[in-house]
Structures are given as structure tokens and as C-alpha cells.
Give the backbone structure.
Amino acid sequence: MNANLTGGLFKLKFKALGTVCEVQFRAASVETAKEFRKSALGWLREFEERWSRFKPTSLLCRINSEAGRSAVEIPESDEEILNLCEYTFQISKGLSDPTSLPLTSLWDRAGKVDEMPSSDEIEEAKNLISWPAVEWGDGRVFLPEKGMALEIGGFGKEYAVDRLIGFAKRLGIADCLVDLGRDVAAIGQPPNGPVWVIGIEDAQEEDAAAFRLAVSGKGLATSGNGRRFRMIKGEKFGHIIDPRTGWPARNDLLTASCLADDCLTAGLLSTNACIVGKEKGMEAIERSFGVEGLLQTTSDHVYSSNIHRHVLGS
């Protein structure tokens, strides 16, 4: 993988965290560009190796395999992820629960075999969802019930976006756009304009942009069930699970896009809006300092009070 210089920008294109990624940036020298590339991609590789639930040898899979049996020792550096689990759980008032993997797995299996899960299966999985029950700290983590399992899919990509922006800043890179599977953050500006311009996909028309946002010094995340879903017995069920009910979230909200000071906050609020619906979702966005939102429903669009400052004409 090379850092190619195009139009005054170094560009990195790669696959990580199960998605297509791109980083664009301006650097004072090729040496600085190479150092950023090495730091960013090295950190991403290590992060995925340790915290991906799809890698059997990861620390996360080891923690899950020991559920109900024994605590797993973890390095002090990895406790940052557990602190983020606590943070996201508290900020979302439990809607983002890092122990929700049993429900996700249940509905994933249902989609594969085309069979609705029973109410007993849903209740059994729900009973395993409890971040407050997890014992962690002092270099160890323990899931007290057999069958419990952690996942960080609710914030992993957004956290990674913010970390890469942090690497850029530490190297004196003032102009940078990080896009990890459409979770985005940007600082500075591109060579050909005052701000980075990010398109928001139309929730009802594939490969069409519903909005264009001016982004600089902000993180942008979009969540929704319009493109990612499971088909079970001919019925569409979105990929976002409501841990309160154990069922995929069902309301008229197709996608929620949030702009915040960091991508992690944007991702939390956009996902939570998809669970609670447009009214409560927008209320939470409006209550959050420095956050703006665009919600696409089956019948209309809902805007936060100051989003117009970032929306560009089509």
C-alpha cells in the first residue's frame, strides 16, 4: 500500500475493520507522510487484532470464551477500551450496551436460517445483556455469566477515526480527512476549497446524495437500517438492535446523520436516534452541545436547529 500524492493530497486507500477506508491529507514532507501512514495503519492493525470479534485469536474473543469461568488479564493500555464501554453505556443511558452480542448473534442466525427467533430465545439472550454486571479494572476483566459476550461494534470504527485524526495532529498535519466505512472526521481544508465536503447518502435512493455537508474540525457518522438489514420470512429487520426489547429497532427513521466535535459522539447519537425514533432522537441531539443532526424518515427529513450552517447547496 502506497501513500499516493494526487492534487496536493496524500491518499491512502485500504481495507480495515471490515470496510473500505480512505485517508486524505497534506503533509510538509514525504517523510512526515510516511510516518503518519506507518503510525495510523500500524495502530489500526493492532486494534483489529486485539478487539475484532471476527478474529478467533483476539483479546476480545478470549474474554468472551472465558465468560462464566475466569477473569482475563489485560494490559493497562487495553483498559482504555473498557473505559469507552463504560462511557458509551452511560452516555446512551444503556442503549449502547457492549454486552449486546448475544442478541446480535441471535438475529444474525435467524437471518441465515430464515427462521424467526422464539420469544424464549429472545428473553434468554436479553438476560445476558448487562454491562453493569461486567467486572473489570486492575488489569482484568470478567464476564460473570456463561454466554455473555462483549463487542465494540457500537463505537469501534468511530473511535478509530478519532485516533487517526489524533495521529495527524501530533505530526503537525493540519489538513486531513479520515473515512473509515463512512464514519468520518476532518480537520483543516483540502487544496481546492475552504472545507471538506461530505455527501450524505439518500436513504431511499441508492448511490444518490441527499445532502452535502461542509466539515472541518468535526466528526460525522450516519446510522440506519435502510441499507443494512436481515430478511426473515420475507420481512425486513434492521441490523440495529434495541436492547430494551431484544428486537431490531422498528420506527419510521431510515437513517440518522450526526455532526459533532468527534466521530465517537456523532456515532453514539446517530445510532441511538435509530433506536428511539425521530422525536426522541432529535431531542437528544438538540440537548448535546455542539451537535447537529439530519434524520431521514420514510416520509420526511428532520433537521436540528443549526444544521443549516453546514449544509451546502446541491
